[in-house]
Amino acid sequence: MNDTPNPTRAVRETSETVCYHCGEICRDTVIHAHDKDFCCDGCRLVYEILDENNLCSYYSIEPGSGNTVNRPAEGGRYAYLDDPEINAGLIHFNDGKHVHVTLFAPGIHCSSCIWLLEHLQKLNPGIFHSSVNFPKREVTVAFNPEKVKLSEVAALMSSIGYEPHISMQDLESGNKKQADRSSWYKIGIAGFCFGNIMMFSFPEYFSIADVADDPGLRQTFSYLNLGFSLPVLLYSASGFFKSAWGAIKAKQLNIDLPLAAAILMTFIRSVFEIFSNTGPGYLDSMSGIVFFMLIGRAFQNKTYQTLAFDRDYRSYFPVAVSVASAEGEERVPVTALKRGMRMIIRNGEIIPADSILLRGEAAIDYSFVTGESDPVEKKSGDLIYAGGKQAGRRIELEIVKPVKQSYLTTLWNKPAFAKDDAAERRASLENRINTWFTISVFIIAALSAGYWYWAGEPMRILHVVTTILIVACPCILLLAASFTQGNVLRIMGRYGFFLRNAFTIEKIANAKVIVFDKTGTLTGNSEFEASFEGTLDETEQDETGSICAHSNHPLSRQIALQLGSRFVQEVSDFEETPGKGIKARIGINEYRIGSAEFAGVLTNSEMNVTKVYVSKNGEFKGFFIMRHSLRKGVGEMLDKLAGKHELYLLSGDHDGDRERMSRWFKAENMHFKCSPADKLEFIGQLKAEGKKVMMIGDGLNDAGALQESDAGIAVSDNLNNFSPASDAIIDGGLMPGLDKLIEYAVDSDRVIRLSFAVSLIYNVVGLYFAVRGELQPVIAAILMPVASITIVSFATLLSTIMASVRKLKSIKHDENHISV
Amino acid sequence: MSALFLLIFISIAVAAGFLAAFLWSVKKGQYDDDYTPAVRMLFDDRPENNKTEIKKTNQSN
Q1: Cβ separation A217–B40 shorter than 8 A
Q2: If A221 and its partner were Cys, which of A200, A232, A391, B18 is the partner (CB 3.0–4.6 Å)?
Q3: Is A181 close to B32, i.e. CB distance below 8 A?
Q4: Contact B61 A184 (CB under 8 A)
């Protein structure tokens, strides 16, 4: 969790100026204040706040780990939080004098953050105390509502670099649920009872003379066992019964049904034996089954608390926006926006509804929607789709459609978004095998009942049938699957591949068709390839490169790199206008490099292509077409996948990349200019052909396709950022290793099958005794834990070994990779 | 034989004590966050209004 100082950072410190606050290299300007260097005003401001309040220990815990403040704190930015209707979803305690609120702050990343956020009371006396939950990246603040408002608390956090993330989804879901602790209680109680029952059963098993001879003592033990088994049956096992009952009501067979039947059967049989004084019963086996199954389920349900796999557009859209009104400006909740209202959007804010630009220069960054991060310029009168982020000055827009009917958000009305978890469970391998298993057990029970009837011992039928059901409990089978899946989930998570649940492993393993999005998925967001169209002679190339080498803009740097010039020419009068271009002089020649307008070129601008125009002394020389380059190693990964899978490409972009992509994708499998709904429908068609489809995408425009596919994988370069609802989230830096991860998923599916086979052996041994009517409680008591422990170690060990066989470790790690 | 009953009673009582301790710890939220408390206990509470000392330690880092 980023606790050790980053070694690369330490090396940098010696050669370049490093910001005292955030630890980044100061690229453009160095602000020297208070004997320290800062990379920007944001960092300096945070330092000043902390310095004033005696909170500089922050920097001694983990030097250079602060967050930069990008947006200056504006008075009214959080004003909407003071609206009781809105903040009801955030506040979980309020008695007029104390308010407790939990805010999600994705900026939390190290121990310094914990320290600072737990000292908020020093920054504002109205705050009583605050505590951080690091795994959830949450801060719980207790404050006095008479002295400080919720909006001020939010603004305070934001001013020290921990901007609270408040989304419509949080507010709509109402009060945050308390962490579910019932599984802990259930495990604790089952373990306690299981241990005690075992202890009281031992004398009977080993036929210790005193116990066997003293009916009083034996009965005491039996009744104690019965007493201990009740909480197990009634409380700890309640989840299995509920789920089984649900299945019966729906007239379906689920995993928990035979399990619940076995638990109930064991209990009834044991009660009968105890009261009729014919034996000690199988209560220890029963509580053992419940105990081990609960542990297995808890292990299987590894959850990543900071990742959300169910986000939709609401978690990404703002809660409120500024709307022009008679009194100037007011904050209106996004849900209350209506057609015709005039929104005011400032730098960095997201446009929540389809609207028409009225005033100002819009440069819209659609990176969340398409994965394309270069801002698109819009002129007044242009229609702007919801989901873009304004980069530049303040703009005014008139709403054309309310939020829920916008071009992008209507996608969420499609039926694909009603995914059913129960159906998922039913379709899993574990359930299919279980069905088959249950049927065979019933057949065996019927056959042996028939045998004993025919053999003239009908009295034994009941005895044999119940023991068969007890011993054939699918518990071992299910344990094997639970532990393998839980282990695989953890191993994958360690490398940066996070699965929503255990069923995803099987779905990834079975997918034969893989559909990729292009921008942001196969290509990175910040690396480019430049190709020049026009004429530049050798000196001009050198000169252009030299000028570009002076700029820090990613596009300029790429051009400089590709032209291969390293400050060959003396550059003078260098002037860079952000968002426009560079003007510079070499000798007598003046160059302008940048947007068409900046370079003084009239063009019929083509959408979706990033071009950098070059003009020399006012004469147009040509332009560079900048294309996102593929992520490093992705080409090799596709080479490997192409052999085993059918690959498709669905891109929202123009088809300029068709040629480059044809190495991996068949011409008929590549589709460009797809709308979000097109993508969804295309996946639907593939599924209709009976194919198992895996979709890999990143933006909101892939959200429909990710939902519709059997296994949707969202690519995210920053795990704290937004990613659309999906079955799995993969760290962008891990894309080159995707083939290995898929192979590993296939392996783990095999491990599960293999451990099913092994557990069947145990069942056969048990059945051998049961069919003959010779299953003594002691055999059941030994068989069950031994089988459970061996199968669990077998499955866990094998899946760990497979991870090293597949060399998952060699997958390149991103420097920013965050473990969750 | 009565010694045995006494021992049984004591053993159950001891085990129940541990169970109660476990349930109490779950209820107090000790299993909700297994990371932050471990970090929190390592923070030193520095004396307040002692800016110079704090600054010195900073520079040594």
Answers
A1: no
A2: A200
A3: yes
A4: no
* pLDDT at site A12: 36
Domain with CATH 2.70.150.10 in chain A: 318-351+354-400
**Across A361-382, average pLDDT:** 75
CB of A217 within 8 Å of any CB in chain B? yes
Rounded Cα gap, residues A640 and A664, in angstroms: 10
Number of domains comprising chain B: 1
**Taking Cα atoms as reference points, which of A285, A287, A290, A189 lies closest to residue B16?**
A189
The answer to whether A63 faces chain B, any CB pair under 8 Å, is: yes
Q: Which of residues 133-162 of A touch B (CB under 8 A)?
A: 133-136
Q: Does A13 touch chain B (CB under 8 A)?
A: no
B50 to chain A, closest Cα gap in Å: 8
Residue A167 · residue A314 · CB < 8 Å? yes
| Second-level CATH architecture of A75-172 | 2-Layer Sandwich (3.30)
Residues A577-600 have pLDDT tens digits of 766 788 888 888 888 888 777 777
Distance CA A487, CA A157 (A): 37
Q: Does A114 touch chain B (CB under 8 A)?
A: yes
DSSP state of A814: P
Chain B CB contacts of A217 under 8 Å are 1, 4
DSSP output for A81-149: GGSHHHHTTTEEEE-SS-EEEEEE-TT--SHHHHHHHTTHHHH-TTEEEEEEETTTTEEEEEE-TTT--
> Which helix (H) or strand (E) covers residue A32, if one does?
strand A31-33
Name the residue with higher pLDDT: A110 or A374: A110
Question: Could you tell me the sign of the dihedral formed by the alpha carbons of A362, A363, A365, A366, in that order?
Answer: positive
- B55: nearest CA partner in chain A: A56
| Cβ neighbours of A285 (radius 10 Å) | 29
Q: Which residue of A has its CA nearest to B44?
A: A57
Confidence of residue B46 (pLDDT cuts 50, 70, 90): low
Spell out a b/e string for A497-532, using b for 16 or more CB atoms within 10 Å of the CB, else e.
Answer: bbbbbbbbbbbbbebebbbbbbbbbbbbbeebebeb
Q: Which chain B residues have a beta carbon less than 8 Å from that of A63?
A: 61
Structural domain span for residue B23: 2-60
| Closest residue in B to A36 (Cα–Cα) | B59
CATH 2.70.150.10 fits A318-351+354-400, yes or no: yes
| pLDDT over 90 at B15, yes or no | yes
- In angstroms, the separation between the Cα of residue B33 and the nearest Cα of chain A is 6
- Considering only CB atoms, which chain A residues are within 8 Å of B26? 181, 184-185, 188
Closest residue in B to A196 (Cα–Cα):
B12
Chain B residues with beta carbon closer than 8 angstroms to that of A118 = 40
* A131 contact B CB<8A: yes
User: How many CA atoms, within 13 angstroms, populate the side-chain half-sphere of residue A120?
Assistant: 28
Most B CBs within 10 A among A34, A57, A136, A211, hence the mutation to make, goes to A57
Amino acid at A635: G
pLDDT in tens, A622-676: 888 877 778 888 888 888 888 888 999 988 777 777 888 888 888 888 888 888 8
Return the structure tokens found at A280.
């000690």
Q: B3 touching A, CB under 8 A?
A: no
Among residues of chain A, what percentage have pLDDT more than 90?
8
Q: Which CATH code is given to the segment(s) A525-629?
A: 3.40.1110.10
pTM above 0.80, yes or no: no
Q: What is the pLDDT of residue A15?
A: 47
| CATH 3.40.1110.10, chain A: domain bounds | 525-629
Least confident of A27-36, A508-517, A682-691: A27-36
